[in-house]
């Protein structure tokens, strides 16, 4: 039960991305690139809460992972399931406690963020289509969490809505990719025809792109960098949707990850 496995179970890349989104949310809220101790606290809080969510998800899914992802720390025997659960609880509590020292709104958002991740792991395995929306919400809320440091949410809320729809499309795509292996989880591909799934993914991506473009055309964020990167991300999202329609869910999923990262960079470019 080495320390490296406790780091691995956090899915550190996801946690770094959550912390980065917090930074972006703050930068957009103040209209410039800046940093402070409060921002640092928010980023650490988001990292820990995201990591807690990954660990508790592995706790609830370890029996499933034993069959399809036996390399993960719990089914591989590197971490006991009880230890993983206690570890996640500790991370949730530390992350929420840190947010208390930012401000009241940040504390409430941290609690909500934690509840969303817990609800996803504990209550949606048999109805994972609800989980898609919960994960998309938790992705969007990191931007709002960053804005809570300054208290200015006007533009960030719209960008969070854009991130929500884009993330929703990506989560549905993940279900299509996983449906062959995770037949015991009730996902959208199990209850809807693939044609309707494709429309839902395309619709989510178009909604996300449209909201981001509205932010630029309304003058809330300016600069050629924001527009260029938003269009680039949008093009990749639509290409990802096309690959899904071609029944290449794996490629679609990889493309959507790239598009999501470019979209975050676009948000940051809007204040540079």
Automatic annotation (TrEMBL):
GO molecular function list = transferase activity, transferring alkyl or aryl (other than methyl) groups
This protein is called UbiA family prenyltransferase
Which compartments is it annotated to reside in?
Answer: Cell membrane
Domain of life, per lineage: Archaea
Among CDD domains, the record links this protein to: PT_UbiA_DGGGPS (cd13961)
Does this UniProt record's set of keywords contain Transmembrane? yes
Q: Which residues cross the membrane?
A: 12-33, 39-60, 81-100, 106-123, 153-169, 190-217, 223-242, 254-271
User: What kind of membrane protein is this, topologically?
Assistant: Multi-pass membrane protein
InterPro entries the record matches: Prenyltransferase_related, UbiA_prenyltransferase, UbiA_sf
Provide an example Pfam family for this protein.
UbiA
Do the record's keywords include Glycoprotein? no
Alphabetically ordered keywords of this record: Membrane, Transferase, Transmembrane, Transmembrane helix
Question: What are the record's GO terms for cellular component?
Answer: plasma membrane
Fetch the Gene3D superfamilies from UniProt: UbiA prenyltransferase
């Amino acid at each position: 039960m080495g320390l490296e496995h406790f780091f691995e179970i956090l899915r550190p890349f996801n946690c770094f991305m959550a912390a980065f989104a917090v930074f972006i949310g703050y930068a957009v809220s103040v209209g410039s690139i800046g940093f402070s101790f409060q921002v640092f606290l928010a980023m650490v809080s988001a990292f820990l809460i995201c990591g807690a969510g990954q660990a508790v998800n592995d706790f609830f899914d370890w029996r499933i992972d034993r069959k399809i992802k036996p390399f993960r720390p719990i089914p591989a025997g590197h971490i006991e399931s009880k230890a993983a659960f206690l570890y996640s609880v500790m991370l949730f509590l530390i992350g929420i406690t840190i947010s208390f020292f930012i401000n009241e709104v940040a504390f409430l958002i941290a609690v909500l963020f934690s509840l969303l991740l817990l609800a996803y792991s504990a209550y949606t395995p048999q109805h994972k289509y609800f989980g898609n929306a919960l994960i998309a919400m938790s992705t969007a809320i990191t931007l709002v969490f960053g804005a809570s440091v300054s208290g200015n949410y006007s533009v960030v809320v719209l960008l969070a809505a854009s991130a929500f729809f884009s993330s929703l499309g990506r989560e549905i795509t993940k279900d299509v990719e996983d449906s062959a292996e995770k037949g015991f989880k009730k996902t959208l591909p199990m209850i809807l025809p693939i044609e309707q799934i494709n429309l839902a993914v395309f619709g989510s991506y178009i909604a996300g792109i449209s909201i981001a473009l509205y932010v630029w055309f309304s003058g809330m964020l300016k600069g050629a960098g924001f527009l260029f990167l938003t269009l680039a991300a949008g093009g990749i999202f639509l290409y990802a949707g096309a690959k899904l329609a071609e029944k290449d869910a794996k490629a679609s999923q990889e493309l959507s990850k790239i598009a999501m990262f470019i979209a975050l960079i676009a948000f940051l470019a809007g204040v540079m």
